[in-house]
Amino acid sequence: MDAPSKRWVWVLVFVFALAVPISSQSSGDSYEPYKPEEFPDWAHGLRRFETIFFGSIPISFLLSSIGFDLYAYAANDFDSAYLPLFFSTSGQKEVYKQETVAARIGVSISLSLVIALVDYFIEERKTGRTGE
Fold it and tell me: C-alpha distances in angstroms, 65 versus 29, 53, 123?
């Protein structure tokens, strides 16, 4: 690179460096957090429902996978090739896992939905809210 082009590169770097502090200045608006009374009761209930639903999916998936593995182990006369979880890595077990992956996901989502619905109805009964 020759000297004049290096000079232009440094000029551009300097110009862009000056522009950064200008663009990063705040507009003067101060942040004010939301207050709980700004949202209706149904929105709080919905938020609680979705938090419990999505939060319980990993636990539900783990429990449903353990259940499916124990069922396969018992259904195959307690064959060591079907030991639950990571105790066995046989080919038959891998085929079984691939065949039941949709069922495992469906059961775990259904279990999470039941958990969230039970919590919703318990919370409704506890707070005495009606469909307002």
Answer: 50, 18, 29
SS3 56: helix
Distance separating alpha carbons of residues 51 and 96, to the nearest angstrom: 32
Q: pLDDT tens-digit profile of 78-100?
A: 888 878 777 777 777 778 888 88
Which tens digits make up the pLDDT trace of 103-131? 999 999 999 999 999 999 999 898 876 55
Give me the residue spans of the domains in the chain: 38-132
39 three-state secondary structure:
coil
Contact 88, 74 (CB under 8 A): no
